[in-house]
């Protein structure tokens, strides 16, 4: 077969193939339109979700700034306390206000109010704020002398291993709870673990100091 004939044959095959594809595409035109529309909707939905997340982050940052400002100005503006209590009851970002409010009550050694505020929000979510609330709630229990309850909370956090919350903080406060309870062997074990695994951190250093103190007192 001559070269020109082979080329003509290939061109005919290509034309036939294209013709078949065009006929097939026209037949399924409605399906193509539906798929294309679906992709556009999915793309628009993805963009909307991202914009919504960014908007929520900006709102959360603004809310946090507002709460911290109210807390910082409490000494000069006692009326801010009522505003903080109001914000703590809101469902959306109320946990942040609750955390700040409970911190204020703990500073004032008002354990009843601190525990009341934290109890209302301590079982919500599984994020950084949640573990901060649990930590503060356990600190309230330590202040009350409810060491077993505090130990239970810190063990719960340790078991869950939250990526958002530093484990050395949890272990150090757990060790302190054991120490205050009088369980020095458990406390020493945790201080040693901290000193070994977190020796270059603040709590690793503090654990080393605590460990020396307990071992000297033996």
**What is the count of DSSP helices, taking H or I runs of 4+ residues?**
10
Please give the share of residues in helix.
over 70%
Q: Report on the biggest sheet.
A: none
**Rounded Rg:** 31 Å
The oligomeric status of these chains comes to: single chain
- Percent strand: under 5%
Overall shape: elongated
Overall number of strands: 0
Q: How many angstroms separate the termini?
A: 103 Å
Uncertain spans: 5-19, 35-52
Return the average pLDDT rounded to an integer: 79
The helix-strand sequence is HHHHHHHHHH
Task: State the secondary-structure class.
Answer: mainly alpha
What descriptors fit this protein?
single chain, 218 residues, mainly alpha, 10 helices
Detailed description of the structure:
The chain is mostly helical. The chain has a domain at 1-72. It has 10 helices and no strands. The radius of gyration is 31 Å and the shape is elongated.
Topology of this structure?
Layout: H1 3-27, H2 29-72, H3 80-88, H4 94-107, H5 111-119, H6 128-144, H7 147-160, H8 167-181, H9 184-197, H10 202-216
Helix pairs in contact: 2-4, 3-4, 4-5, 4-6, 5-6, 6-7, 7-8, 8-9, 9-10
